[in-house]
Specification:
There is one protein chain. By secondary structure, the chain is an alpha/beta fold. The protein has two domains: 130 residues, Alpha-Beta Complex (Aspartate Aminotransferase, domain 1); 227 residues, Type I PLP-dependent aspartate aminotransferase-like (Major domain) (Aspartate Aminotransferase, domain 2, 3-Layer(aba) Sandwich), CATH 3.40.640.10. The protein is built from 15 helices and 15 strands. Strand 8, helix 9 and strand 9 form a beta-alpha-beta unit. The longest helix has 25 residues. The protein binds pyridoxal-5'-phosphate (PLP). Pyridoxal-5'-phosphate binds next to helix 5.
Length: 391
Amino acid sequence: MKHYNFDEIIERRDTDCVKYDLLETIFGNGGALPLWVADTDFRVPDFIMDALHLRMNHEILAYSYRPESYLEAIINWMDRKHGWKIEKEMITSSPGVVSAVTMLIMALSEPGDKVIVQPPVYFPFFTSIKGSGRKMSENPLMLKDGRYTFDFENLKQIIDPQTKLLILCSPHNPGGMVWKREELEELSRICTENGIVIVSDEIHADLVFSGNKHIPIPMVSEEIAMNSAVLMAASKTFNVAGLSTAFVIIPNKKLRVKYERVLHTVHIEGGNIFGNIATEAALKNGFDWVSQLMAYLENNYNFLETFLTTRMPKVKIMKPEATFLVWLDFSAYNLTEIQLGKILINGGVALNNGTKFGTGGDGYFRLNFGCPRAILEEGLVKMEKAFDQIV
Ligand SMILES: Cc1ncc(COP(=O)(O)O)c(C=O)c1O
């Protein structure tokens, strides 16, 4: 098996990348170490770059479609990675996971209907709901034994006849939870009983740490399989988010037809030629690479945990079961989010502030450890120094 070097530091400045090149605009400190936006600093694997280079050599990049081999790559990946057997008819497309969330909201509800979110959660969901003229209904996550879980009692209370959809983030960003079968079963039961479709953002599905198992929502029961849509992409795992390509799996034909009507209306079903090629190459060849990536990320997390527990014990860590993101609770410092944010950025490290993720996010910051260990260590040392000065 080929060995990949995740310690390699690749200069990303001056590539028009959000993570580094927008630091000055967004944080007012262009020289800060970026442990914020959710992409990684790892090189795109050779099997993806080779496939892209090969296609680039043919110097016509006109309209293209997704071939059978693309669909086969998704079908095989779902089976091998998640034990989920899907048919090619179930697969449809989107330029992104968030755009698919928005299109599903438009396809499966009417203006004024209610859509449930479970904050703190990936914040673009809020814009998808409000921007499309729907009402956002909140079922905040509950903290139990140091991890988030669903509040089923509150969920039952807030559901009414206008409630049409629930957006699930699985695995969870920012908390890193891999939802357990019992959690998903109860959530699915409540939703199907009330005619609520689950829109399941599973973009982080391939980034699961040892000892945890991601369950695509349609695998939970026959009923929820007919009442859900799964959104996935190679973008997070293989660091190809700039190619703007995702895929959507909807087992129920009726729901799929409604979704595809919106896709067709917006006229974006063709997609991005390089995104399609990268996705196919990733899912055909990426199995061993992802195993190595996850081993590296797990070591990064362990390094972070040791560092923070010994050197910044006031920071409470929510141990992630998946993703390269960690949700850190700074509330023991008894400072406002603005004060905490200033300390961090003046100390030279950029993290995402918690309130952006909605209810329950105050006092938290999200840190991205999807980077070479040396960068992570530098960031943590900067954080320690920044807080040393105020205590
Ligand atoms: C949970 C989650 N969903 C969706 C996205 C973005 O997906 P896309 O760029 O395909 O819209 C992200 C990126 O951070 C994410 O963490």
